[in-house]
Amino acid sequence: MPLVRIELLEGRTDEMKSKMIQEVTAAMARSLQIEEDAVDIIIQEIKRKDWATGGVTWDKQ
């Protein structure tokens, strides 16, 4: 059973995350030729102050 870990900046709605989960699940099942109920997904939301790009945290951008 595959496990997909997704890290995102905080701020997405539950509806957005739900749609992403459905689409990632379908893609994994299709590409690996497995049942969708075999796919596990963990979403970790990261605070903007804890994620930096180019030396600047996202809360400062």
UniProtKB/TrEMBL annotation:
EC number: 5.3.2.-
Alphabetical keyword list: Isomerase
Domain 4-oxalocrotonate tautomerase-like, first and last residues per copy: 2-56
Class of the enzyme per the UniProt entry, highest EC level: isomerase
Isomerase among keywords: yes
Family classification: Belongs to the 4-oxalocrotonate tautomerase family.
Record-given protein name: Tautomerase
Species whose genome carries this gene: Effusibacillus consociatus
